[in-house]
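Board notes (copied after class):
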Amino acid sequence: MTSEPLVVVGIGHDGPGGLAPEALEHIARAHVLAGGQRHLAFFPDWQGEKLLIKTDLPGVLQKLKGCYRQQKTVVLASGDPLFYGIGHLLLQTFPKDDVLFLPHVSSVQLAFARIKESWHDACVVSLHGRPLQTLLSPLHQGTAKIAVLTDAANHPAAIARFLMDHGYTHYTLWVCEDLDGPGERVTQWTPQSIQQQAFSPLNVTVLLRCPGEAHTTAALPLLGIPEEAIAHRQGMITKREMRLLALCYLELHPGDVLWDVGAGSGSVSLEAARLSAALDIFAIERDRQAWQQVDTNVHAFALSNVHPILGEAPEAFSTLPDPHAIFLGGSGGRLAELLPAAVARLQPGGRLVMHCITLENFTQGWSLLQQQDLHVGTTTVQFSHAKPLGTLHRLESESPMFILRARKA
């Protein structure tokens, strides 16, 4: 029985030569050494049990749990184990007091050091087993520095094609391969020039926005898209103040499914989609001209997580995944059918928000929601904006808006 902790040692491409004496001492005294094939290969003469960490992570964790209190055990990991590494999983498996971390310099730190750029203001995106769409959120926000952890499918050339497909050609790609190893290589590319290139699978790709250039949507505010930036028919758009209130009451989380029913120009969908690329949004519109405007806006804003649906609600609901949140901007005069059908599909704990400008719609909506198993509330708002009156100004009021909101039990 040993009272020593499970020691997790971060190791770089330079192997044991880059380790501190404390880390080397733990490895020398260990009876069990766990790590990937590349990590274990750094210690060919080490005497003891070697535990290969490959694909069967649950099995490896079980073995570690069975041996670390009996024999001194060291786990080898790449760079900083707590930075997109095995450290997070180990902390979910072992008591914190039983684990000691000795991190190495992370690959992202090394990459920025090699290209001589500060990285305190950088965004780090891991594409390990994740879709390329994960990049959309920082790209939409015009992030100047994005470090990308790649995998076999999401390699530098694939990232470059994704940038070109979505109109983000104003980024330079720095590909940093085999950092700190004998084959280290750091190269600079444009999205166009990198297309036929192949790289080591051990790379960090850094996207740097070209100085003085920005994608059209990157110049927009993070929240509250100006109405003139959205294609719409005159007056047929949810004003941005109302959009922000709707988003507030919808209480969206990454991974949520949102239905935007009676989407009109799709302004609420656009606003929500720019908050998180992990949202899955269905903009449902029965009018073909309006639906085409939604589609135009989705492409203009390069929002792959918004799906324009041409169809009549509630019939259009049948092919969609159950929503966590529903925004009801229009009912086409079918509120009595639409609301119960929407509520029936809403997931437990789901939220519904409905905007009403007429007393009749508000009264009917309130009554219909009260008949469901919902927590129902309402708010009314009225905005006034300054308008010129000769050489002076006055406040001109808009029509009051009723906001119905409900939460499913």
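Comment from the instructor: The two ends are 50 Å apart (CA to CA). The chain has twelve helices and 19 strands.
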